[in-house]
Amino acid sequence: MKLYIGNKNYSSWSLRGWLVTKLAGEPFEEVNVPLSAQGIVPNPANLAFSPSGLVPCLHDGDIVVWDSLAIADHLAERHPRMWPDDPAARAWARSITAEMHSGFAALRSEMTMCIREHVDVRPWSTALAANVDRVMQIWEESRRRFGAGGAFLCGRYSIADCFYAPVAFRFRTYGVEPGGAARAYLEALLSHPDVRDWECHALAETAIIDADEPRHIYRDKLAVR
């Protein structure tokens, strides 16, 4: 298999695709495609390997799969333990994964993933505060209802955790400090070997994309402090 991904410091979608591919346990070649300053706007140069022009994109023999959730579903077809075994926990994990995949617009736009950075940009917008609260609610309820078998959302590390890993980095970057079970989960997720591997390579990158840099995005707010 071959997985095309963007810059590790910035590309949250690539992180999800990379983590689920690592979770599958099959060997794969990693191909880094530098992100453009246009963010999620498709890069025409990427059309040679990705039908959407975006990353991540997985080549599995003759099969091409783009979009992080599609990659997860494709791999889980032959690696069923990527989801929880219990039907109720599996349905829950799929639901919170889909919710993260399709929602949280304010969190994505107002807390861009920039692993190397640490800033506090409070006060947050109402929409962002609501997104942060919802994430913490998901983490708390997942741990309470399904977390008995391990340190992760549904006990054993799964696709759901892969999809919340970019949020964990965002929370650390922007100084979001959950309490209780959510805090313990955040620490466990950031300590997972695959997450730490990604972080190590992200911190080694030197590319700067102003559109994703908190100190550029919030330069006016930070300047008055």
CATH topology of the largest domain: Glutathione S-transferase Yfyf (Class Pi), Chain A, domain 2
**How many helical elements?**
10
Query: How confident is the prediction overall: mean pLDDT?
Result: 95
Question: CA-to-CA gap between the ends?
Answer: 48 Å
In words, what does this structure look like?
The chain has helices at residues 12-24, 68-76, 87-102, 105-110, 126-146, 159-173, 180-191, 193-204, 214-217, 219-223; strands at residues 2-5, 29-32, 57-60, 63-66. The protein has 225 residues and is α+β, with helices and mostly antiparallel strands. It has two domains: 2-76, Glutaredoxin (3-Layer(aba) Sandwich); 82-204, Glutathione S-transferase Yfyf (Class Pi), Chain A, domain 2 (Up-down Bundle). A four-stranded mixed sheet has the order 2-1-3-4, covered by helices on one side. It is globular, with a radius of gyration of 17 Å.
